[in-house]
Design goal:
Layout (H helix, E strand, L loop, with lengths): L1 E3 L2 H13 L4 E6 L5 H11 L4 E6 L19 H11 L3 E3 L23 H4 L3 H16 L3 E5 L3 H13 L5 E5 L19 H19 L5 H11 L4 E8 L14 E9 L2 E9 L2
Parallel strand pairs: 1-4, 2-3, 2-5, 3-4, 5-6
Antiparallel strand pairs: 7-8, 8-9
The chain binds adenosine monophosphate (AMP).
Length: 273
């Protein structure tokens, strides 16, 4: 596995591969890798000839009061995990943007609610960094975890709308042995908060398993189980538009974000009527 830190070297290599018609798979991350990430890397490995993983903690997607400076990092451990998962190139730029960077990528509609409402400019930061990474890495396909369901929807829309010619593939949400969705941010949880955080997926499962046709009734059933310091949202949405629904009469998605101390945890489940 090669480790590349320079954006110019990365792009020159990637353009060479594309010119030779290679199937290039890409898994972008912010590092501090866990089994959720390595699952995506292993799944992507099976779909491409050359596999690139990026690690870059993107300042553009953090708000002023968010955890950019204390975001957990482990470059050595991450490199070992990428190698073991079959990565060919680990792209770890120290700096991704030119000093006079002027462009922002804004995706409309699917960014307005949920994470978009809680974290203004977050998705602009995500779409912008992914767009720039796509230019540098020149992938034919990229995988994003369903753990961040809205992010996946936003990036799928971006790639389609801008005719990028890159297949955007969803990766399954990977959970810990007790059901907690794996996240780099789980390390911030106190033992007590980690225990309480189990009610997040339990609430979503209760809502999924309810037989009610009413979204409001299902949400109330989930809310009754949830133990958190504050709830940003718990909703049942259309999986394409992310608009909330009233009736559970087709495949939908239940999404939630709750806070435990200073840590925000996201989770979601698919709902079949
Ligand atoms: P991050 O490093 O948190 O930006 O995540 C990088 C990629 O890994 C994104 O596509 C995430 O959706 C995905 N990811 C993070 N956690 C999980 C998980 N528990 N299961 C599956 N994918 C995940």
């Amino acid at each position: 596995m090669d480790v590349i830190r320079s954006v110019d070297t990365m792009q020159a290599l990637a353009l060479g591969w594309r010119a030779r018609g290679k199937k290039v798979g890409f898994v972008p991350t912010m590092g501090y890798l866990h089994q959720g990430h390595t699952t995506l890397i292993e799944l992507m490995r099976q779909r491409c000839e050359l596999l690139i993983v990026s690690i870059y903690v993107n300042p553009l997607q953090f708000g002023p009061s968010e955890d950019l400076s204390r975001y957990p990092r482990d470059p050595k451990g991450d490199a070992a995990k990428c190698r073991a998962a079959g990565c060919d190139v680990l792209f770890m730029p120290d700096n991704l943007y030119p000093s006079d960077f002027r462009t922002k990528v804004h995706v409309d509609g699917v960014t307005t609610r949920w994470e978009g409402a809680e974290r203004p400019s977050h998705f602009e930061g995500v779409a912008t960094v992914v767009c720039r990474l796509f230019g540098l890495v020149q992938p034919t396909a990229a995988m994003f975890g369903e753990k961040d369901f809205q992010q996946f929807t936003v990036l799928k829309s971006m790639a389609r709308d801008l005719a990028m010619g890159i297949e955007i593939i969803p990766g399954p949400l990977v959970r810990d042995h007790d059901g907690l969705a794996l996240s780099s941010r789980n390390v911030y949880l106190s033992p007590e908060d980690r225990r309480r955080a189990l009610t997040l997926h339990q609430a979503l499962y209760a809502l999924r398993d309810s037989r009610s046709q009413s979204a409001a009734e299902r949400i109330a059933a989930g809310r009754a189980i949830l133990d958190c310091d504050s709830l940003d949202y718990l909703a049942i949405v259309d999986p394409e538009t992310l608009e909330p629904v009233e009736l559970v009469d087709r495949p939908l998605r239940a999404i939630a974000t709750a806070r435990y101390g200073r840590t925000r945890l996201l989770d979601n489940v698919a709902i079949a009527p």
